[in-house]
Every structure is written in structure tokens, then in C-alpha cells.
Amino acid sequence: MKKLGPNISEEEIKKLETFKDMVLEKNRVMNLTAIAEEDFYLKHFVDSLKLLEFEKLEGRVLDLGTGAGFPGIPLAIMLPEVDFLLMDSLKKRIGFLEEVVDRLGLKNVKLIHSRAEDGARKEYRESFDYVVTRALASLPLLLEYTIPYLKTGGILYAYKGIKVDQEIEEARRALDILGAEVEEIYSYKLEDEDYRIVKIKKSKATPKKYPRRAGLASKEPL
Questions:
Q1: pLDDT for 39
Q2: Could you state, in order of their start, the residue ranges of all structural domains in the chain?
Q3: Interacting residues of 190 by C-beta distance below 8 A, sequence separation 6+
Q4: What is the residue-wise DSSP string for 159-172?
Q5: pTM above 0.90?
Q6: What is the phi/psi pair of residue 12, to 5°?
Q7: How far is the C-alpha of 111 from the C-alpha of 101, rounded, in Å?
Q8: Which position among 18, 123, 160, 190 has the lowest Cβ density within 10 Å, counted as fewest Cβ atoms?
Q9: Fold of 2-219
Q10: Within its chain, how far is the Cα of 69 from the centroid?
Q11: 150 and 124 in contact (C-beta within 8 Å)?
């Protein structure tokens, strides 16, 4: 837990511990994570919170495709003054996260069951200061999912692996069409494995035709 920083409080540690226990317990009956308990702190908590070593979050944050709640729940625990919306396409996962939010008393977290393409067409379109994603999709596809949610000037933080340079090259057209640009790539290690967080800024309003209807982006990436 010391890897999370010297300023972490006992209350925050307790909430992270409780969250870990809830994930592992639910994982017995529902596929939430393939990461074993001995790697949980490093590959879920340290990884999720690594962003805070590089950037400061404020305002409104969307965790798109949150899965078992990463990185959204750990970030929300550490940033109680920031508003988080966690979105996932699987209703069972959202049901589990409702239990987590209630148990941990996270007043700054809201949850929604929705496909990425659907949520960006109505009330959530261009309404977030930040979007965070971890292990959701390759960058060309990920951009169409995420950029429509951001306000102009908003930031996407995409947690990625070492091969992200290739993904960025493949995403050049998507970046141009959607009005976004790569601002920074943060590098870090977890034990001997290399990881990246790609910072992408939205520079102009997203064309109204994006995101396309559900399923089309994955079949025909930009």
C-alpha cells in the first residue's frame, strides 16, 4: 500500500481493502477479474491510481467501460471532491458496483448501464471534463467511444500497454476526424512490466454523426 503514496489515509486504505474483498468474493460467481489476490494491489490499485502521479483531476469524470470498477472506484476513493460516472454495458457489473458504492459510502459516484455509443448521443454528450479508460479497446475504436463525451478542451486518459505507439499511428485518421490530439504519453513500470497512460485532448466539437450506431465502430474503425 506504500506504493500508493505517503499521504494515503487509514480510511482510504480501509475502503480499498473492502473493495478488494468484495471484488474477490463476487469473482467466485461472476467473471470480474483474472488477476489473482497476490497481484491485486499492484495491478488494480497501484495501476488505477498511477494517473494521480502525473495529472490532477477535477470537475466531472467518466470511467467508460468500468468493468469491475477500475480505475473509477479507486480514483473516486482518493478524490471525494470529484464527481465520477461509471458506465458499463453489462448490467450485472453495474449491479455489483451499486453494492460497492453503497457499502463504501461513495457519495461522489453515479452508475449507469449503457453501451458506449448510446450514452454519447443524449444527455452525456460533451458533458465531461475527463474520460478515463483501462483495457477497453484499441485506440482507433476507443476514440470514437470516448471523445464525444468530452467537452471541448476535455481530456481522455487511456491506460495502455507498451505497444501504444503502434495504436497511435493507426489512430491518426480518427484523431483528425474527431478533433483530438495526443498531448502526452506517461510511462511507468509495475514490477518488470511497462505501461503507458496516453493523454489526449479534445480540440473542437465532435461531428454529430459520431459515435455511429452500436456495433458499427468495431466493424469499421475510423
A1: 82
A2: 2-219
A3: 42, 43, 46, 47
A4: EE-TTHHHHHHHTH
A5: yes
A6: -65, -40
A7: 9
A8: 123
A9: Rossmann fold (3.40.50)
A10: 9
A11: no
Element housing 189 (H / E):
strand 180-190
* Mean pLDDT of all residues belonging to the chain: 92
Q: pLDDT tens for residues 26-51?
A: 988 887 877 677 788 888 999 999 99
State the residue for C-alpha cell 476514440: 143
pLDDT tens across 65-96, in order?
Answer: 999 999 999 999 999 999 999 999 999 999 99
Spatial CA neighbour of 155 closest among 187, 202, 197: 202
* pLDDT, tens digit (0-9, with 9 covering 90-100), for 159-173: 998 889 999 999 999
Which set of grid coordinates corresponds to residue 168? 497511435
Query: Residue 119 belongs to what H/E stretch?
Result: helix 116-119
CB-based contacts of 157, cutoff 8 Å, min separation 6: 51, 55, 130, 131, 132, 133, 197, 198, 199, 200
- 72: CB partners within 8 A, 6+ apart: 61, 63, 66, 84, 86, 109, 132
Contact 49, 12 (CB under 8 A): no
Q: How many other CB atoms sit within 10 Å of the CB of residue 215? A: 10
Residues comprising the chain, all counted: 222
Helical pair 10-26 and 91-104, crossing angle rounded to 10 deg: 150
Task: Give the amino acid at 43.
Answer: K
Sheet holding 60-64, edge to edge: 109-113, 83-88, 60-64, 128-134, 150-160, 193-202, 180-190
- With H, G, I as helix, E, B as strand and everything else as coil, classify residue 159: strand
Helix, strand, coil content of the chain in percent (nearest 5): 40, 25, 35
Chain centroid offset of residue 86 CA? 8
